[in-house]
Amino acid sequence: MDYFEIHGLKTLNGVIEVSGAKNAVLPLMAASILNQGKLKISNVPTLSDSITMSKLLKKMGAEVNFESDNSISVDSSKLDNPFAPYDLVKTMRASFYVLGPLLARFGNAKVSLPGGCAWGPRPVDFHLDGLKALGVKISIENGYVIADGSNLIGNKIHFPKISVGATGNIVMVAILAKGTTTITNAASEPEIQQLCEMLNSMGANISGIGTNTLTIKGVTSLNSISNISVIPDRIEAGTFLIAAAAVGGVVEVSNIIPEHLDSVIKSLQKANIELEVKDSSIVIRANVSNILSTNIETNEYPGFPTDLQAQWMMLMCLAKGNSTIKENIYYDRFTHIMELNRLGCNIKLEDSVAIIEGGRRLIGADVMSTDIRASAALIIAALCASGTSKISRVYHIDRGYDKIEEKLTNVGAEIFRKK
Ligand code: UD1
Predict the structure, then answer these.
(1) pLDDT digit string, tens, across residues 76-88
(2) I need a labelling partner for 326 at 20 to 30 A (CA). Which of 144, 198, 223, 237 fits?
(3) Pairing between strand 347-350 and 323-326?
């Protein structure tokens, strides 16, 4: 199993180019089920999650090819098997995104329930309740959702809590339902915005994109589109900004949409980190001794993303003074605390609030990745630690970060992938 060996305390200098967003490419690939012709998706990150989604689409009958220019071509015209098996869905929860487009296209689908994940149960009840409201009959058999959506009817849906995945799934059904659907407490994340814009370019009628209320007027059929380019990964960008802030140096994080990082930029500025925000990049001039402790709470977009909580926690271990992080999206997403403490951090947990002692000096250690973003926090910690660290189970990071060791090596880090 691959691991990373990291020699810490090397400042970072240079440009890091951000890849396309994992959380955008996965729903766009799922939406390609509704596209009849050949679709070229460009700016696709090389991730094991994009490969898992391509395997799933192929298994259902689509033709999917990875091209040399960071693009993939997906032709779903011959897709004829609306079935998503457990062996693929269990490795990637976002596989559940295929349920909506399969129902909209075939009127029925059999999709495995995703099961738990490293930091908690992560249910799919909002997806299923929303589908039922649109007239879908659902039964659960042998761990599979068996869905019959032969009579899709628009309805009013209010999510008890904002859900990115449930919003995406329901939208992909409602666009072809009879009548109008209104979703309140809908997700406004940039990745959902891009999904809705793609569907509109295929002939759907979704309004309110980017707000928490979506109105979807059902249409009877869709057109096909031939091109789409994935938006930049705001979480990858935020990870590199936090890494540069923690390790020190002058780094330009490029190929981004700074507006998508508004809450992260504000938090970094509050922590006294010097940033120059340009049109499609951010230059960070980091001086670790100046970092000020800054409390944050994770929230839905445009709030501070839960997917950057672990990385921010690491940064706060170096700040002047103590700070807190309140996790409002996943109350138990804290498996990284014990591993960060092994590297010399001192973080305690009280309910869903992490209490972080600042001013720590980190020392290299062997640690274990537990999920995608926790792994990123461990990499940052190892880059800040004296001596050598080994991070095992890097398959977690390969799910969500495109060539991370290459990108960090290019700006001066010493990080090696070993077997
Ligand atoms: C997506 C992102 C993930 C991110 C998360 C929150 C993708 C592929 N993944 O995950 O990186 O961390 O948004 O920004 O885009 N919930 C329920 N029932 C449901 C659905 C959700 O209770 O049926 C709860 C969840 O447990 C969580 C909250 O709603 O507390 C938000 O989850 P959700 O937005 O659905 O996360 P994902 O779409 O799975």
Answers:
(1) 999 999 999 999 9
(2) 237
(3) unpaired
Question: pLDDT digit string (tens) for 266-305?
Answer: 999 999 999 999 999 999 999 999 999 999 999 999 999 9
Work out which ligand 1 atom sits closest to the CA atom of 305.
Answer: 14
User: Phi/psi of residue 138, each to 5°?
Assistant: -125, 135
DSSP 35-82: --SEEEEES----HHHHHHHHHHHHTT-EEEE-TTS-EEEE-TT----
Torsion, Cα 287 290 296 301, to 10 degrees, reads -40
CA proximity to 25, closest of 2, 56, 55, 47: 47
Separation of alpha carbons 365 and 181, rounded Å? 53
Name the token pair of 73.
């071509």
Distance 94 CA to ligand 1 centre (A): 10
Give the predicted TM-score (pTM) of the model. Answer: 0.98
Decide if 345 is catalytic.
Answer: no
Across 381-418, b (16+ Cβ under 10 Å) vs e yields bbbbbeeebbbbbbebbbbbbbebbebbeebebbbeee
- Give 289's contacts (C-beta < 8 A, 6+ positions apart): none
Q: How far apart are CA 345 and CA 220, in angstroms?
A: 57
Encoded tokens for 34: 């509704």
Report the pocket of ligand 1 as residue ranges, CB < 6 Å. 23, 26, 93-94, 122-127, 161, 163-166, 191, 306-307, 329-330
* Beta carbons of 311 and 268 less than 8 angstroms apart: no
Yes or no: say if 315 and 294 are a contact pair by the CB < 8 Å rule.
Answer: no
pLDDT digits (tens, 9 = 90+) for 125-154: 999 999 999 999 999 999 999 999 999 999
